Amino acid sequence: VQLQASGGGLVQAGGSLRLSCAASGGTFSNYIMGWFRQAPGKEREFVATISRNGASRYYADSVKGRFIISRDNADNTLYLQMNSLKPEDTAAYYCAADEAWVVSTKRYEYDYWGQGTQVTVSS
């Protein structure tokens, strides 16, 4: 499966952005999906994950209550709604997919990655 992330940009603290990740070349509903992010000089970290049918979602503590992960299996698209953004959310955001049956927070368990989309939150 090929993944294409989009929707990043520059936003003020407290603002919102919605990231999208379009999938092609595979049966989208056969993959768990995840969002990860990487700030300059830091390791890539887990943000959120969603099960194949969207029924199970899990978030990093740092984004819980502010971010919402969702998916549209009919449209082969993954989303990340980001609200109440903070400067520490500034990073390149990556979508990832894997043919696992349970959601995962570990980046090494994802086989497919999209290119990053940059999110910059100004104070």
- The mean pLDDT is 97
Q: Helix and strand string, N-terminal first?
A: EEEEEEEEEEE
Whole-Å distance between the termini? 37 Å
Biggest sheet character:
7 strands, mixed
Given the C-alpha coordinates, what overall shape results? globular
Describe this protein's structure.
This protein has no helices and 11 strands. It has strands at 2-6, 9-12, 17-24, 32-38, 45-50, 57-59, 67-72, 77-82, 91-98, 112-113, 117-122. It starts with a strand and ends with a strand.
Question: Which helices and strands appear, and what pairs or packs with what?
Answer:
Elements: E1 2-6, E2 9-12, E3 17-24, E4 32-38, E5 45-50, E6 57-59, E7 67-72, E8 77-82, E9 91-98, E10 112-113, E11 117-122
Parallel strand pairs: 2-11
Antiparallel strand pairs: 1-3, 3-8, 4-5, 4-9, 5-6, 7-8, 9-10, 9-11
What's the gist of this structure?
It contains no helices and 11 strands.
Relevant terms:
single chain; four-stranded antiparallel beta sheet; seven-stranded mixed beta sheet; mainly beta; 123 residues
